[in-house]
Design goal:
iron, ATP-binding, alpha/beta, 45% helix, Rossmann fold, 516 residues, nitrogenase activity, 6-stranded mixed beta sheet, 4-stranded parallel beta sheet
């Protein structure tokens, strides 16, 4: 059997089926971990909840709306400013976060009045913003607050405002992916088709599953515009609330992140007959193929090819320079979601790195199928790993770098493994031809940076003593300070500039003559 059992998880035998090692000649059925299941109790999962998947991943990249959480303040704080979903309206959606701040009394007596008050206050505080998205949390769902009814009443009282309600409590799915589904369906049920757009081109698309991380969307929009394509809406990075109401008039849905947004594409095809075309903005080969597919759909292949030729000639030599220096380096691709398979083959083929592991905290079986199929033999695939399993995997695989999120990345740094932020990027954008070179540069810098080599130095064994010289605050606060140390000229000079050290000195040596 291909299953891999972690030493740290032997006390939870069910975890064995959630990790596999891809062996020689094995097909996907032999090497597929269980995924998108309820979290096994005791595993200390680091997954996001369904509310997080709805608000944090898909909702808040929408740039011109107030995003209100109906629940305790901790829920909205956890989903605020944790990704670089930038926008061209001075990042309004990143600057502010809104919560009804439910307390125990509201759980007992209800919080609909509180919600109505918060909605009105938010609109009055930002009179130029006329749109709002309200997100249900576990607390408001469990007590049965009718958020839709409250929203309808406020819209009648305040003509000109429009409110979208997403009923996606944290327990609404095994992971954040459950929230992706709920907000996709809620948006098309409530808002799509409620506004008619102005069509300016013979080629009109919705760009779906794009969140404008550090400007990703702007890169792709530039390519589309150079092809003569009108982008009706972007779901949802840098997307406008009203533009997203008019998604039903596009000729084609161009889908980037299938894990988070395939649901709305499928419904748009079912209800409005709009075809879906999956694309990939990462890597020279996949991106070139994607632009050709869009060009083929509209009959403008020549425009697509002109962009490919121009960008490839400009950036391929630089990518090849990095490939020579990254060849054979081992990478853990712990990005989750669609990047698990968007990146796996592209970074191997175009940058020369070896993908030794993939993982996802919320990916479905389809994500693992595509991801594992594009990995080399011997790759370790893990569903919903915890911190201990991640540490054990790194100890076993000894990667040169890992691509992951902030939490696992900080853990990796503690054992001196460099990491790149796969979710919010280090120096993005990473999409597009130039972006892919930028990604290669970040990998190169992460692996070859001398700071990581310095981290292995044990300065306690340095031939030059490290316990002599300038008196530090720690030395001063030590109750065993000698008279020689506290009366040193360096310390006397420093006490004149520091408010903390004199207090420490007075406590230890009341008669110490401090410099005024």
């Amino acid at each position: 059997m291909p299953y891999h059992e972690f030493e740290c998880s032997k006390c939870i035998p069910e975890r064995k089926q959630h990790a596999v090692i891809k062996g020689p000649g094995e097909n996907l059925t032999d090497a597929l971990p269980l995924g998108y299941l309820n979290t096994i109790p005791g595993t200390i999962s680091e997954r996001g909840c369904a509310y997080c998947g709805a608000k944090h991943v898909i909702g808040t990249p929408m740039k011109d709306a107030i995003h209100m959480s109906h629940g305790p303040v901790g829920c909205t704080y956890d989903t605020w400013q944790t990704k670089r979903y930038i926008s061209n309206n001075d990042n309004f959606q990143i600057k502010y976060t809104y919560a009804t701040d439910m307390k125990e009394k509201h759980v007992v007596f209800g919080a609909e009045k509180l919600l109505r008050q918060n909605i009105i206050e938010a609109f009055k505080a930002f009179p130029d913003i006329k749109r709002m998205c309200i997100y249900q949390t576990c607390a408001s769902a469990l007590i049965g607050d009718d958020i839709n009814a409250v929203a309808q009443k406020v819209m009648k009282e305040m003509p000109g405002v429009d409110i979208f309600v997403c009923n996606s409590p944290g327990f609404g799915g095994p992971s954040q992916s459950g929230g992706h589904h709920k907000i996709n369906i809620a948006w098309i049920d409530q808002k799509v088709g409620t506004l008619e757009p102005e069509i300016k081109s013979d080629y009109v698309i919705n760009y779906v599953g794009e969140y404008n991380i550090q400007g990703d969307e702007e890169v792709m929009m530039d390519y589309f515009k150079r092809m003569g394509i009108q982008i009706l809406s972007t779901f949802t990075g840098n997307g406008s609330y009203d533009d997203l109401r008019s998604m039903h008039k596009a000729h084609l849905n161009v889908l980037e992140c299938a894990r988070s947004a395939e649901y709305i594409c499928n419904e748009l095809r079912k209800r409005y007959g709009i075809p879906r075309l999956d694309i990939d903005g990462f890597g020279f080969g996949p991106l070139s193929l994607s632009l050709r597919k869009i060009g083929l759909f509209f009959g403008i292949e020549d425009k697509a090819q002109a962009i490919i030729d121009e960008e490839t000639a400009k950036w391929k030599p630089e990518l090849d320079w990095y490939k020579e220096r990254l060849k054979g380096k081992k990478v853990c691709l712990w990005s989750g979601g669609s990047k698990l398979w968007h990146w796996a083959h592209a970074i191997h083929e175009e940058m020369g790195v070896e993908v030794v592991s993939v993982y996802s905290k919320f990916g479905h079986q389809g994500d693992f199928e595509k991801g594992i199929a594009r990995c080399e033999e011997g790759a370790l695939a893990i569903d919903d790993p915890n911190e201990l399993e991640g540490l054990e995997a790194m100890e076993m695989l000894k990667p040169d770098v890992i691509f992951t999120g902030k939490r696992p990345g900080e853990v990796a740094k503690k054992i001196r493994v460099p990491y790149l932020n796969a979710h919010a990027y280090h120096n993005g954008p990473y999409k597009g031809f130039e972006g892919w070179v930028r990604f290669a540069r970040d990998i190169y810098n992460a692996i070859y940076s001398p700071i990581h080599k310095l981290a292995y130095l044990d300065i306690s064994k340095d031939e030059i003593p490290t316990d002599k010289g300038f008196s530090t605050q720690k030395m001063i606060s030590d109750v065993n300070l000698s008279e020689e140390v506290v009366s040193s000229p360096d310390l006397r000079e420093y006490t004149g500039k520091c408010n903390i050290i004199p207090d420490l000195c007075k406590k230890t040596y009341p008669d110490f003559p401090l410099k005024k």
